[in-house]
Design brief:
There is one protein chain. This protein is mostly beta strands. The chain has one helix and eight strands, in the order H-E-E-E-E-E-E-E-E. A hairpin with a 2-residue loop joins strand 4 and strand 5.
Length: 143
């Protein structure tokens, strides 16, 4: 059997043990990716081991908040834990969304431990052509 040592992994594990699991008042951060795909802005969060009912998504004005809780798996009385590296507790991430996004039509999908939010780009923010009139002359507005 080959053993590989990663000193940074051990440092991360030690820091997590010192800080402790995230709580609702002090949640841990969650990893995410964000990108634009066509007419949508996509944000993907890594939440392995979290059940869909333990995910809470809120939007207030232009602030998107995602909270999730990874709960311990129920174990039989005779089970003795030898190694536990997967963090438990509450994870959270807040993102300020641009005014150019349509927060009324956000779609959420959770598959294989990844929460994917698709946020459409608002019609007013999409590029559009302005036609130029020829020979219309100037018009005065009187009132």
């Amino acid at each position: 059997m080959l053993m590989r040592t990663d000193p940074f992994r051990e440092l991360d594990r030690l820091a997590q043990q010192l800080v402790g699991p995230g709580t609702w008042s002090k949640p841990s951060a969650m990893a995410m990716d964000a990108y634009r795909e066509g007419d949508e802005y996509v944000v993907a969060f890594d939440l392995p081991g979290v059940t869909a009912d333990a995910i809470d998504i809120d939007v207030e004005r232009n602030m998107l908040t995602v909270k999730a809780e990874r709960r311990p798996v129920a174990k039989a009385d005779e089970v003795q834990m030898e190694l536990s590296e997967r963090p438990l507790g509450v994870f959270s991430r807040q993102i300020v969304l641009a005014d150019t996004l349509d927060t009324e039509h956000i779609k959420a999908d959770y598959d294989a431990g990844v929460l994917t939010l698709s946020i459409p780009i608002a019609e007013r923010a999409k590029p559009r052509k302005i036609s130029v009139g020829v020979g219309t002359g100037h018009k005065e507005i009187s009132g």
